[in-house]
Amino acid sequence: MKIAVLPGDGIGPEIMAEAVRVLKALDLPGLELHDGLVGAAAWRVCGHPLPPKTLALMHDCDAILFGAVGDPECDSLPRHLRPEQAVLGMRKELGLFANLRPAKVFPGLEERSSLRPEVAGAIDLIIVRELNGDVYFGEKGMRTTASGEREGYDIMSYSESEVRRIADVAFRTAQGRSGRLCSVDKANVLETSQLWRDVMIEVAAGYPEVTLDHMYVDNAAMQLVREPGRFDTIVTGNLFGDILSDQASMCVGSIGLLASASLGEGSKGAYEPIHGSAPDIAGRGLANPVAMILSAAMMLRHSFAREADAARIEAAVADALNAGALGGDLGGTMGTREIGDAVLAALG
């Protein structure tokens, strides 16, 4: 169990420390943790947010635990040197095209949601987000028009094969849940989305036990607030998935609660909280480490097939939260280390 540990920037090192403490407490056989630099931390030392040494470590390890990247001091750098490029580069380099983002209200936290408790309490969904296509990877640039004004452009595109492979992941995910899959697109406006919808329908023929529905992204955003309990498995593109998963995080109470797994064709994956580096609270011991700890649980499940250990971490987190181990993001007063202590105590 060789794991690359990449804390990154901002609150990354603080929350990663708690996830590592939880992993070590499990006394897992063959556990190896190898630290690496990424993001602004890597740029300051190596001149690049994803240096060759870190890439080599990623390839050499069985899984990657990734904290967060981003630093306001790097905003003036050329785009290819900004910390956030490390995330896109990692996904592309390792062929990680499927992002799984579960969202479920923990018992006792219904009142912490922005929604009415009875609405929030029904949330138990997973968003399957495509990671290697869409506007994030399309041709982009700035140009001057014939009239002399500046124009920025980002091309959105998907190939049939890219849609087909994420569709297979989504249908298999839905198979393991309630058998309901909602594909989110904007096919009434975008040709990219029309291809997306067409391929989803074609792939659905191979999964007769899964019910496929379609929804435009603007309606999906509305329904996530109005009736989130109607969703089970959602599949969508890179841009829409980025936005909807952040929205889902606030429906369950805080972005500090949501973990994610980025997967490819094999068992290797990268596991990270969906939140950013939060430079405003970095170094103050205020960050909620729950999403990072739950990302470690997802790693044990998806890369190492250790379901019992993953479930044990998730149960400990649920127990700690229900007992009042809440940070400032959930209206509590506990700091990063204290929340980690509470999870460890619940772990036994």
Can you give a write-up of this model?
This protein has helices at 12-25, 40-46, 52-60, 85-94, 117-120, 160-175, 191-204, 217-226, 238-251, 290-302, 307-322, 336-347, and strands at 2-8, 32-35, 63-68, 98-104, 124-130, 140-144, 150-154, 180-185, 211-216, 233-236, 259-263, 269-273. By secondary structure, the chain is α/β, with parallel strands linked by helices. The strands form two sheets. It has a ten-stranded mixed beta sheet with strand order 2-1-3-12-11-4-5-10-8-9, with helices on both faces. Strands 6-7 form a two-stranded antiparallel ribbon. Helix 8 (217-226) packs parallel to helix 9, helix 10 runs antiparallel to helix 11 (307-322) and helix 11 (307-322) crosses helix 12 (336-347). The longest helix is centred in the middle third of the chain and has 16 residues, at 160-175. The chain is globular.
